[in-house]
Amino acid sequence: MDLRLLINRDSDVSIRSQCDYLGIPRSSFYHVPQGESDENLKVMQLMDKHILEEPTAGVLTMQSMLKDVGIHCSYERVRRLMRKSNICAIYPRKHLTVLGEKKYVYPYLLRHLEISRPNQVWEIDITYVPMQQGFMYLTAIIDVYSRFIVGWGLSNSLDAESSLRVVREAISVHGCPDILNSDQGSQFTCKQYIDFLKDSEIRISMDGRGRALDNIYIERFWRTIKYQYIYLNPADNGLQLYNGIRKWIDRYHNRDHQGIDRKKPFIIYNMAA
């Protein structure tokens, strides 16, 4: 997670001491990037909810949806905010990977694969999370066999290091999976991410472009956590968001899931791992 979320302004321990203890520059804690307007934040939240209902919704569809609720946005504005929210419509399209990154795109390995044990296949993804004011990004890794969340973290950017930090922490606790599947986002098609997985002897799998079902288990998890917790409990700050998600995931791990014969992810993962 973003270590800055752990700093408490109301603590008896000084901000300087907390930054020193966590190993982060004090200047990075005080830096406040320019945020989006309230209207843009509302637009991003509406699009985030809509993409869960209509995964094929592109810029024009989003523009029409916003118009229906009385918000008029230009094509360019909608496209920018979709990118900011990490929202990407699912539809077949040409391969448009930027030259220089194409060598980091890997084939999809899960088709017709029988998944029979924990740590055989993990899926990773990153999603936009709205708050009362502003937003953050949530990265999570799900074990496909058990639906257990082996790692997750919050950050305020879409950079590769934030996602890679979650991978490192998951491996340090649970060991390496045989296969780690992701989409073809820039966080996962970069040298830093690919080199780490190769060095860890993890097989790399990536969704085909425009394929809705390739990363289906983590996509279902996003829908569940957003409708059952995030949308109902908009956080005031990053620390509140982190603690709320942590408690919700604990409950998620200890309840029955229909997709695994009404068993609990925590029990399946820990009994078989």
From TrEMBL:
Pfam families: HTH_21, rve. Gene3D superfamilies: Ribonuclease H-like superfamily/Ribonuclease H (3.30.420.10). Residues 114-273 form the Integrase catalytic domain. GO terms for molecular function: nucleic acid binding. One of its GO terms (biological process) is DNA integration. NCBIfam families: transpos_IS3. This is Integrase.
